[in-house]
Specification:
Blueprint lengths: L4 H18 L1 E5 L1 H9 L4 E5 L16 E5 L3 H12 L3 E4 L6 H14 L3 E5 L13 H9 L2 E9 L2 E3 L7 E3 L4 E6 L6 H4 L5 H17 L9
Parallel strand pairs: 1-9, 2-5, 2-6, 3-4, 3-5
Antiparallel strand pairs: 6-9, 7-8
Helix pairs in contact: 1-3, 4-5
Length: 217
């Protein structure tokens, strides 16, 4: 039996919200994020795909939008995000990716909206940065913000990204990295040599956030 999409989304949103409500969440280095927002500067929160579950607390007092796949699963995710006041721009690297990035650019330019991008999504390779966030940084002149989310107890799904679903009443550490300089300085052009250097830098920053995290969440 197939449930109507709206009902499926409502059930998934309920389960998601129920788990999130039990999590003990700690944030590190949040002050720099709030300061950039206070100054009216745009950010691109860059996460790994497998650490996405506990995303919602990042939005606290921020206006945030995410790029979401145009697939059926993406429809459900968009509804869940909408229920949490997180916007969705539809597209992926396979279907409408450039249009989605351009739409996100225009949204960020019109409003004080910060983007959330899983930089190794939607299909990997695992923990390898792709160009989407870098393109957006250049076009929207936004700060790259490396973010890692560490779950103390989580189930790892048998998917390409090893997606983590935290167990109820477990803890999660959201660790914000040092924001990059504005996008035009960090990614001054879209030449492959520039993008390659930026990808390497971001991967290094993401890995550095994992140092000494064990036991802190």
């Amino acid at each position: 039996m197939h449930l109507p999409p709206a009902l499926t989304s409502a059930l998934c949103s309920f389960v998601y919200s129920s788990i999130c409500a039990t999590l003990r969440i700690k944030e590190e280095n949040r002050a720099a994020v709030d300061e950039l927002n206070k100054r009216g500067e745009r950010m691109i929160c860059c996460l790994w795909h497998d650490e996405l579950f506990s995303l919602i607390p990042i939005a606290r007092q921020l206006k945030v939008a995410a790029i979401v796949s145009p697939s059926r699963d993406g429809d459900m995710l968009a509804r869940i995000l909408a229920s949490k006041n997180v916007g969705a721009v539809r597209g992926s690297s396979r279907h409408g990716g450039m249009n989605a990035l351009l739409s996100m650019t225009h949204l960020m330019q019109r409003e004080l909206v910060h983007a959330v991008i899983t930089v190794d999504g939607p299909a990997g390779p695992w923990h390898k940065v792709k160009n989407g966030a870098l393109f957006l940084a250049n076009n929207a002149n936004a700060h790259i913000l490396p973010v890692r989310i560490f779950h103390r107890n989580a189930v790892q799904l048998p998917t390409w990204d090893k997606f983590q679903v935290p167990l109820p009443f477990s803890s999660a550490l959201i660790r914000f990295g040092v924001p990059w300089e504005n996008g035009k300085e960090a990614v001054p052009d879209l030449e492959e040599s520039t993008l390659a250097a930026a990808r390497s830098r971001l991967e290094h920053d993401m890995e550095a956030l994992a140092s000494d995290c064990k036991g802190k969440n």
